[in-house]
Amino acid sequence: MRLLHLFTAGLLVVILSSTNQAAVRPAALNRNELGQSFLLQISYEHTTIGFNTSRSRVVTFHRDGAVLHMLDVSDADGHDDSRVLATIPIRDETGSTLDVDLNEGFDTVFREEDRTGEDYYGRIDTHDGRAFRLFQRKPLSVSYHEATLVFDQEARTSDGDSIVVHYYLSPYHPRRDFRPFEMKNLQRFGFYETYPQWRSGAWVLYAMKFDIDKPIVFALSSDVPDRYRSAMREGVLYWNQAFGRPALQVVDAPRGVRAPSFDYNVIQWVSSGAFASTSYIQSDPLTGQILHAHIFVTPETTVDGDLEQQQDHLRYVVAHEVGHALGLRHNFAPGGATSVMDYFRSAQILQIGKGIHADAPALAYDTAVVQHVYLDAPIDLNTLPPFCTDSQPGCLPFRSAPRESNAVR
Ligand SMILES: [Zn+2]
Fold this sequence. Notes:
The protein has seven helices and 19 strands. By secondary structure, it is of the alpha+beta class. Strand 2 (38-46) and strand 3 form a beta hairpin. The radius of gyration is 22 Å and the shape is globular. It binds zinc ion (ZN). Zinc ion is lined by residues 1-2, 320, 324, 330.
């Protein structure tokens, strides 16, 4: 759901005022790992764009004298279009490590995000190369989460807006037992997709999805008002009805933990935002395994009705955003309510919310596609509800179903 609302950058202020730049140490990279592959994941908070992610990439480093070139090798199985994403000065070195100036090297953010597919916004066989430069860059923090280096940076864009950029850099070790799901087309259901990859003589695209050998855990931020917490929890757990098993869990995020978090898939309550609610993923760009999800919900979602109606509305909103976080794209096909990935008018939303509260079975499309993509269950195309999604011709929310007489003709 991406309903536009006026944005003010409450989040940004929190970060900028709570850090001490003088204490930031340089990032250290192990020399003997430099030629290996790394996973680079980037998200940012911008005063007008709001929160967003930049498409995850597999990168490697080549030393050239006093600098490291960071090369994009995400598409290495296809065309040879490795390219330099950043040139990073080496400030110091020991026998085993290089101290590098990531703040100096990381000066550009690409707009393409992980929440994408090759058809996205009409794009076929091309990448969205749009990017913006970062000026007046300052390091905010460097920290390590097991093998992942986390670097936070503040900067200004060319029009002077404030931005905070978060970088996760880790040795690239795709999970061996993760089973990618190949997307053949977008005719009957839709997930966000990986880069196209050349496999056994053909191009393949994989669906973005979590690994469900372990529960998928979402953490409700401590900012969520008490009167909404159980409704939002139920919105997450809607998907357990679709999976037919307890694949998802909800915990309370520790105080101070907010989206984006390295450790948690946070459902963040924000005072305002570019959208009433929105959802982002960060994935393995080759296998499609979703590694981080960030969901933002604003009080705009609760302005109408009494408390019970607000809670019903939130149940639907959270189920919809968690659906995106599980990799599902919108389904705007006209007809009855067959998926929380559609947009609905108020009465229908409240009805869906009540159903979630009552532990009603999940809607038919949602159940069929998560069981197919996540659990390898067969899908019955005869009973699967219709599907259409963003960027497909004529596919818009709130279309009415064709009358039977028209359909017959
Ligand atoms: Zn949506």
